[in-house]
User: What shape does this take?
Amino acid sequence: MKNFLRLNVSLLYWVLVAPFKGQLFQISPIFRQMVFIGVRATPMVALTAFSIGVTLAMQAAHSLQELGAEIYVPDLVMVTLLREMGPVLIAVIVIGRSGSAVAAELGTMKVSEEIEALEVMAINPIRYLIVPRFIAMLIMLPALTVLGNYIGVFGGWAVCHFALDVTTAGYIIRALESADTWDLYSGIIKSAVFAWLIITIACNAGLHVEGGAEGVGQATTAAVVQSLLAMLVTNAILTALFFFKA
Amino acid sequence: MPDSPPVVEVANLVRKFGERTVIDNLSFTIQRGETLVIMGGSGCGKSTLLRHIIGVIKPTAGSVKIFGDEITTMNDRQIAEVRRRFGMLFQSGALLASLTVGENVALPLSQHTDLSSDEIEQIVTQKLQMVGLTGFNHLKPSEISGGMRKRVGLARALVLDPELLFSDEPTSGLDPIMTAVVDKLTLELTRAEGMTAVVVTHDMTSAFRIATRMIMLGRGRILAQGTPDEIRTHPDPEVQQFINGEADGPMPLNLSQDDHEHHPHVKARPLVSAQHRFRHKMP
Assistant: This one.
């Protein structure tokens, strides 16, 4: 925990303070990480989001048909997707894909003395290794969430169009009427917070690996489990803050 | 040059890991232009000593001065400042696996200088040529042999033209010809260009070829020090056993697992000590 907080503090220093002291971070490693964390994850995110959209629509239809309120299917899909399912499930995908990979990569670098070598070459490992991954994650997870929202809504439309009596125009109108921009923004805020948690937990686990291949395995597991838990708990807290008024 | 200050000055250095004293009150100095070879059996604290000098580990007690400044009390920024002035070759090479050979060698240049990419490429090619690896720029470290990786590590250590070079076993894993090439390179850089070198090695041929002064460590202390000739004729039987590579002598041949844990000649193996700890915890 102490290490985790210290990592956060030095990350904030290198991202927010150091650029104004003339130590600007390099752009090209950030783009490389953005491709790895974001662009390469799009097929998985698309498939996940489409499945969620379809599932939500089917479940909504099942309940709403009994009430004769099929017309409200788009509302349910839209709100659930933007507020909860989109940010959470896409974060799950990114944890499984990039969180584990970052922890394993940094852990292997630690074990094979690469991080020590960087320090001895007077290259700060936080600045050289962590900052690009941090910024890339902070940009790409919200971006993937927005993409996932689109595709999920498309999945919901597919069910309405092919299986239910909802027209395309009706779907679009209901969808737009039911959700306001805050639904979208709250989801993006959530995913930005998740991005922060995922990447700092993964980097912290990787940087503090000890004891060879076994340690790398343990750190990777720890990174995935911890970030999943942290993400879900934070999601509950954020939902309480944003939407729940008792 | 007796009037110029020593490049490295180690005084009363002590380092304990738990109850085990790995470095026991070591003192020595390294003058500019010297090639100091540090020898000693596996686990006698050579690498630990090196890590203290470059400021990776803090000592339990004592002082380490490098270029006249105390490194044990410096903050991270001051240490980084000092580290730009020396090169370090790691035992494993410690290349970044995600970068190519060329990018690895270029790394200190791209991080610490404002040279254009053309100039960097030119220097990188020249340094790789020095270690006999022309045309390997675009391979990944995983695609070359262990000995090549070590030579790339050496090229990277030399890329900023350091005043001081630390090498942790530079010739282990190299064939005899490549060992000679690396030794010749070290000699050229120290004798002709005045670089100071600190070399940790087991390789006696190489050690006697390059050293201007030698230190032999054992049980965390200096067993012997002097010029290569003085070491060759040193009266201590332990030193003779080591430099002649004899299996039996004052240094024990067979150690039990418990000795492995506690014998000062041998590094504790993490797995063994973990098992010990585990057993202690069992009801």
